[in-house]
Amino acid sequence: MTEIDAKIDALVPAWLNLPEIAERFGIEVTRVRQLVKEGQLIAVRRGENRALHVPAAFIDEDKIVKGLTGTLTLLRDDGYNDEEMLEWLFTPDPSLPGTPAQALSENRGTEVKRRAQALAV
């Protein structure tokens, strides 16, 4: 869990705090914290109260967007930190088209994972 910098904050169009995610998932906030700790979600501190927030694009109604967790694992294995992963996920990629985060939400996770794997080469 990292502090957010202005560049990343500008790239990510919308954020959810942990209680909002817990409500959508129908679980306790402590379980959402566990998902972050396990690396299934990325949370950063932002706003005046420095509360933890997750990009809204990572949440599909009442679950984590399909393919996100695997993509985060690939990026971590490539040596990316949380901020670098957010930058990569929310930077437009003309070959997708759109951002990797958009592609994941549109169920195009295979394409995203292929690009994430190519980063390691």
UniProtKB/TrEMBL annotation:
Assigned keywords, A-Z? DNA-binding
Using the record's annotation, list all stretches that form the Rv2175c C-terminal domain.
65-120
Domain DNA-binding protein Rv2175c wHTH residue range list: 4-59
Its domain of life reads Bacteria
Q: Which Pfam families does the record cross-reference, listed alphabetically?
A: Rv2175c_C (PF18367), Rv2175c_wHTH (PF21531)
Q: Which InterPro entries match?
A: Rv2175c_C, Rv2175c_wHTH
Task: Identify a single GO molecular function assigned to this protein.
Answer: DNA binding
Name the record gives this protein: DNA-binding protein
Q: Which organism is it from?
A: Streptomyces boluensis
